[in-house]
Design a protein that fits this description.
single chain; about 190 residues; alpha+beta; 4-stranded mixed sheet; 8 strands; about 25% helix; about 15% strand
Length: about 190
């Protein structure tokens, strides 16, 4: 079995690729794979099938909500987790309305009005689907200036001076996360 390490992505490659999600990921550039968050691709033997699993899911305080502290809101939704060294928090739901407006102005031309990767011309899969990526992933791309992209056709989104402020990046991540709440939440070292 061959292995390839691509930053936070480790791929163990067998002979068959059967997962539709893996096939979808394979069509993306390596840079786009980083937007998917840390994942591990497993395969086993000649009749291999792939499944995507967070590589940190069994470790405490590693970006997933299995930490020593988990806080939920009145609806039972996890809004924070972590320990004494780091806390992961969801962006405030009060930012969702602002985030929706900012997304429509700065992101929808590529990622579609529903953040699903379908732009106005209707070409499905033309750009990365952001739904379910988790607010930390969205915040990273916007806060680092990689998004909104200077050149949407570029293979690599380089770090640059952000077009949006930190609070605006949080608002965009709050809106995208409101579509399908996911993890990781945004890390805050203590």
């Amino acid at each position: 079995m061959d292995r390839a390490v691509l930053g936070p992505v480790l791929a163990e490659v067998g002979t068959g690729v059967t997962s539709p999600l893996f096939k979808r990921c394979a069509a993306l550039s390596i840079v786009s794979l980083f937007a998917l968050g840390p994942v591990l691709l497993f395969a086993g033997g000649a009749q291999a099938s792939y499944k995507l699993t967070p590589y940190q899911s069994s470790r405490k305080n590693a970006g997933t909500p299995n930490s020593t502290m988990v806080k939920k809101n009145s609806d039972g939704v996890i809004i924070a987790y972590g320990d004494s060294s780091i806390t992961y928090r969801a962006p405030s739901s009060a930012l969702v309305t602002l985030g929706a407006a900012l997304f429509q102005q700065n992101c929808a031309s590529c990622h579609g009005t529903q953040a699903n990767g379908v732009p106005a011309n209707g070409t499905s899969g033309a750009y990365p689907d952001l739904v379910g990526l988790g607010p930390a992933t969205i915040d990273f791309w916007v806060d680092s200036g990689r998004m909104p992209a200077a050149n949407p056709r570029s293979i690599e989104a380089n770090r640059r001076v952000p077009r949006l402020t930190h609070d605006q990046a949080l608002a965009v991540s709050a809106w995208v996360n409101s579509l399908s709440p996911s993890f990781p939440l945004i890390p805050y070292p203590t």
